[in-house]
Design brief:
single chain, mainly alpha, Growth Hormone, Chain: A, 16 helices, 0% strand
Length: 386
């Protein structure tokens, strides 16, 4: 039963990934059809991320009241509604409305399922879980690229919503499976009644926020601005730059897959340490101005090194802070990650517009610095439950 349930959770995480990379692929066509300035995309993504932050912070109370299984099912259904809503949107205001469904759905399921897997499964399962997220973020731009061949971004969203609806049906159909698994394994979804004021007093919790803030900022700044950097600062064509971004996401997916295998031999802390060391030569390769194709190797290594950090940090949450506090801590960690996703790509874009895309490697160095310094403090924090 536990294995079958894990498969369902993996499928849910494909659904979590599908909306995340769809809008970026569709935006040029949406922008053309609606006659909007390019910067209007920020308003949509900011709205979605703010909603995700709110639902992440609410995840502990929602899980306590409704259970992880129901949160997963309802959240997936919300994102399916949001995707279908985009497909029928005739203006940006309709999109704003349906963005609420995507944002609130994504944040809740992200925190709830990450916590469940961290508490009840091994580190390898957590890494493989995030591989399935990688399948989702890879699948949706491909769907949109097929739709755009017929100049119909709407059909891309429609097909994505159908896939999401199927995943939602699977999530609802699996509700009895969750109950059986809970009975067989003695699982309790009991959460701490602690307040946020008590949460921030936990030793090491603030440093974990900064680690995930830095790691997710590094991930999204790389994915968002590497292409522009390669085109404007390194002279690559747009199609080659897009291929390099594919290499980057491939490195991230492969890093999480490899981490899942290595986790049977190494501790999560060791995998995190190896990954963070890999990022140093990676940024150096991206920064060098002589051989553009070495940038592809650098981007691959950034994905390879940074990719395993998120799932391994999440897996350590119930170990560091105890199972009763883990859902509340997990929600706050997801919120910190979303704040990085919200703010850092936008700030990088502002700096690139004010100066040039040459600032891209320096942004990576700063974000890596935040991440590595925070990791040092995190390693010194007290372990609650080995």
């Amino acid at each position: 039963m536990a294995t079958l349930l894990l498969i369902v959770i993996f499928i849910d995480f494909i659904g979590l990934g599908i909306p995340d990379s769809l809008f970026g692929a569709a935006w040029p066509a949406i922008n053309y059809d609606f006659g909007l300035p390019i910067s209007a995309a920020n308003a949509v993504t900011v709205t979605m991320t703010v909603c995700s932050i709110i639902s992440s912070l609410m995840s502990a109370k929602l899980t306590e009241r409704f259970s992880t299984s129901k949160i997963a099912a309802v959240s997936t259904a919300l994102t399916a509604v949001g995707l279908f809503g985009f497909s029928i949107s005739k203006n940006i205001y309709m999109m704003f409305f349906f963005t609420l469904f995507l944002g609130f759905g994504a944040g809740a399921i992200d925190a709830a399922l990450n916590n469940y897997v961290a508490v009840h499964y091994k580190a390898s399962h957590m890494n493989f879980l995030h591989c399935f997220y990688g399948i989702g973020v890879t699948l949706s731009p491909y769907i949109m690229s097929l739709a755009l061949k017929n100049r119909s971004w709407e059909s891309g969203y429609r097909w994505a919503s159908i896939i999401q609806l199927v995943i939602s049906v699977i999530a609802f159909a699996s509700l009895p499976l969750w109950q059986k698994n809970g009975i067989l394994s003695g699982v309790s979804e009991e959460n701490s009644k602690s307040s946020f004021a008590e949460l921030i007093k936990l030793p090491g919790v603030k440093s974990t926020w900064l680690v995930l803030f830095g790691s997710c900022s590094l991930e999204y700044v790389s994915g968002t601005w590497a292409s522009s950097f390669l085109v404007n600062s390194r002279g690559l064509t747009a199609d080659k730059a897009a291929l390099f971004i594919t290499v980057y996401y491939g490195g991230m997916a492969f890093g999480r897959f490899l981490s899942g295998i290595l986790s049977t031999k190494l501790k999560p802390q060791q995998i995190i340490a190896i990954g963070t060391i890999l990022i140093i030569p990676a940024i150096a390769l991206v920064s060098q101005p002589f051989v553009p194709f070495l940038c592809a190797a650098g981007l691959f290594l950034i994905g390879l090194g940074n990719g395993p950090l998120y799932p391994n940090m999440v897996h350590l949450t119930p170990i560091r802070f105890g199972k009763k506090m883990s859902q509340m801590v997990m929600g706050s960690q997801m919120a910190a990650a979303y704040i990085g996703i919200l703010s850092m790509p936008a700030l990088t874009g502002f700096l690139a517009q004010k100066f040039s895309t040459d600032i891209f490697p320096y942004c990576l160095i700063i974000l890596y610095g935040i991440m590595i310094i925070s990791l040092i403090f995190t390693r010194k924090s007290k372990i609650v439950n080995e």
